[in-house]
Amino acid sequence: MPQIRYSRWTGTQASSLQAEQVFETLNDHLNHTGDLQQAMRRLLQRGAGEGEERVPGLDELLAKVAREMKELFERYHIRSALDEVEERLQSIVSRERQTLGEGNERAPELAEKERFLNQLPRRTSEAIEALSSYDFEDEQAGREFEDLLRHLSDIRRLENFSWKEGNLFKGKTPVDLSEALKVMARLQGLRSLEGQLSSTRLKEVDREHLKDLLGERSGDQLDDLLRLESMLEEGGYLMERGDHYQLTPRAVRKIGQLALREIYYQLTRDGMGRHSLRRRGTQGTRMEESKPYVDGDAFDLHLPQTLRNALLRKGSLPLRFDPKDFEVHQYDDSTRAATVLLLDMSWSMSWEGRFIAAKKVALAMESLSRSLYPRDYFGIVGFFTRAIELKPKDLPEASWNMGDPFTNLQDGLHLASELLDKKRSNNQQVIIITDGQPTAYCRQGRLYCEWPLSFGGISQRAAQETLKEAERITRKGITINTFMLDDSPVLKEFVEGMTRLNKGRAFFTRPDCLGKYLLVDYFSRMRKRV
């Protein structure tokens, strides 16, 4: 059941911050972490928005906690309270000793009491506990001790606290027992609050406790952060499943749109257009242009041009139509296509922001295909030591694989071919984004891995098996286009060899330019009849 918390308006609440803005911030973190839970923690830690709309994150609240603790350490001298208690105890024991020494007769029991006092433990709380069963001869000392005994539990707590953290207090302000207990309670409260805030489980944070320790403004900041969570859920971007979050289908689509927007921003800034096609056909989007009707065309009559042709031919009424007068609407040629994007997820893709750039392109292309070419097939395969199919919902949290550092492009090509076999089309292509040469391959169901023969060298067998797979899918009419994020000579030689074999294309680019080159090429091929 949803819980709604109302609080006094302070002018700091994120009134104009929208769910879409919050999600864009979350998406930025997701691009860098590849993990939704970690991205959500970063959002809560760092906050969202800018200027007057900014919602401070947990890091700022934790900084306040740290400042409060530092102030306690630099202000108070906590040991002074224990010194005062020890002095009180010594005064009581001294008074009792004096009374025992002033006895007219040194009875054996008095001598035994004096030996008992001489053997008291050195730790103050243990000495008080030992004296709790002692029968004082001095009445005033007894009364003073009874008052001290009532605070034994507090003294013991303060001793344990001082033993653990007393050295942190470097201040010069002395405190008595009562004040020391308040300082101790405040520090322990700050420690507890620090743990709650560090866990990022905001619903478990005691707001009233936070407000007492850090002030009303901090309580409002916590409410704003809780609002960020609810905004994402109410906006349809996140679902909370127990102790973890899950992206909704809407969120997955939005991530692709954001990636596409960023990449198209580069295209606009660079002055590159949409590469319109000159050829027209009879299927696709209807256009205002017309063409003479020929047998086999859809009889979608372009009436104004047909009437004009009849008038020009005869020049009088009533009109009599001839088959040559008929003109029909032209249609944009939008043939279907089937594309599989091969995304390198090996360890080396973590360098220089390569995987972040590659994944952003994959998200953008998936969004482009779904929105502009809904009848096309667009699949994604990730390859490292083995190859796996990635569903659109898996892509936002995909990351490079540290545990499987090899590059099995051959297995990736094989899986891409299998996916394309299920989606027949005259336009089939594989787009590869990678930064390294093959170092693994599969043969007869077995996996083989091999490092290059030398630094900068090539894995000979892996390269040969990969080229065999490229040749096999070339015979199926599948085009391979490769985008390399590294331009080492050995790597260039391998890719150029595969390109000559397949008659595809190869591009050597940087991570920051990858989306620009890749999307322009993909967009142009979507409207080309093969």
What does this structure look like?
- With 530 residues, the chain is of the alpha/beta class.
- It folds into four domains: 105 residues, no CATH class; 90 residues, no CATH class; 44 residues, no CATH class; 188 residues, von Willebrand factor, type A domain (Rossmann fold).
- It contains 18 helices and 14 strands.
- The chain has a six-stranded mixed sheet, sandwiched between helices. The protein has a two-stranded parallel ribbon with strand order 1-2. Strands 3-4 form a two-stranded antiparallel ribbon.
- Helix 17 links the parallel strand 13 and strand 14.
- Helix 12 packs across helix 14.
N- and C-termini, Cα separation: 56 Å
Q: What average pLDDT do the residues reach?
A: 79
Residues in β-strands, percent: 5-15%
CATH class of the largest domain: Alpha Beta
**How many strands?**
14
Q: Count the DSSP helices.
A: 18
Q: Using the 3D structure, state the CATH architecture of the largest domain.
A: 3-Layer(aba) Sandwich
Please indicate the count of domains: 4
